Structures are given as structure tokens and as C-alpha cells.
């Protein structure tokens, strides 16, 4: 596996997962998931997205970028809750706090193609990714799209850290294992990624 990728299986207990889902759901109140679209083609993503933080990652016909407001409600994103800040403080080994928490929701048919997280100025900071709900097949490659990739199954409560040499590695979600978790009332998978954007 590429150096700098840290996989922390079962980092969150079931109780901690339930608590986190509750906290995030409350914080997302009036900050709905929307359907992002591919730059240029405007093809819809299968993953629904929203954000917490002073900045949020958005994608539409004009491109990928960070914005201070929700693309549909035009309201600022709710703040990143303390429970998530604490996870960052425990794991990031980085002095500055995250500015964005991208919240991804995958229904059973959703997936995310191989990509790099490259819209952040500060690539010395890691990206911390928290999985909640249904299991998924995570794919990780190298720094070039052509590099060989490996995949493994990730489960609710697992955390992946993309740091160091793995910060700019290609990664994606091949598939969701529908019905594999009872954590989310309506099924599916919630993924939270904590990101530092500005240096
Ligand atoms: O859902 C995941 O585990 C990965 C999400 C991801 O790579 C992203 O939002 O950039
Ligand atoms: Fe990513």
C-alpha cells in the first residue's frame, strides 16, 4: 500500500458511530444534500453531497471548488461539530484545524470514480475520511492515474487517513454493500472527509 495511507479499522465503537450520526444529522438541519454535477458535461454524480465548515467542496458545470455557501440554499454551511474536530486533533498531527467536512451520501447504487483530492492549497495537511453505515469497496492507487490500484472492503466506524505520500494518491469507491449495516435508518453509506483547504 502507498506510504502515508493509514487504515484504522473499527476506530469508532458502535456507540460512538451512533452518537456521531446523531450529531451530524442535527448539524445538517436545513443544509440539504444536493446532486453535484461533473464539470463541463453537467452529468450528475451518483453520490449526494453537502458540507460542514467555513468552506465546502462543490462541483457543477463550471468546475470543482470550495465555496462558503451551499449551491442551492445560498446559506453558509453549518460549523464542523466538536466531535469531528476532536477526531482531527487526535489523528491529523497537524497544527491547523480543518475548514471543510464534505459529507457524502451513497445509496446502494452510488459509487465514486478514481480521483485525487486536489482542490486544497494546503496539501501538507492530511485528509481524514470517516465511514458510517453500509460497507464499501475502497480503491487506492498511486500518484498517477496509470499506477496499479488495490481495493479493500471498509466498514462502518473505519477511518482512512490520506497523508504524506498518499495525500495526492488516486482513490475511489467501487461499490456499496447494500444492507450490510444497521447504523443508518434508511440504509446507505455516509462518508465524512475532514480537509484543510488554506495554508
Ligand atoms: O467515500 C469515501 O470513502 C471517499 C470519498 C472521497 O474520496 C471524497 O469525497 O473525495
Ligand atoms: Fe477523495
UniProtKB/TrEMBL annotation:
<keyword id="KW-0560">Oxidoreductase</keyword>
<dbReference type="InterPro" id="IPR027450">
    <property type="entry name" value="AlkB-like"/>
</dbReference>
<dbReference type="GO" id="GO:0051213">
    <property type="term" value="F:dioxygenase activity"/>
</dbReference>
<dbReference type="InterPro" id="IPR005123">
    <property type="entry name" value="Oxoglu/Fe-dep_dioxygenase_dom"/>
</dbReference>
<keyword id="KW-0223">Dioxygenase</keyword>
<keyword id="KW-0479">Metal-binding</keyword>
<dbReference type="InterPro" id="IPR004574">
    <property type="entry name" value="Alkb"/>
</dbReference>
<keyword id="KW-0408">Iron</keyword>
<feature type="domain" description="Fe2OG dioxygenase">
    <location>
        <begin position="97"/>
        <end position="198"/>
    </location>
</feature>
<protein>
    <submittedName>
        <fullName>Alpha-ketoglutarate-dependent dioxygenase AlkB</fullName>
    </submittedName>
</protein>
<dbReference type="Pfam" id="PF13532">
    <property type="entry name" value="2OG-FeII_Oxy_2"/>
</dbReference>
<dbReference type="InterPro" id="IPR037151">
    <property type="entry name" value="AlkB-like_sf"/>
</dbReference>
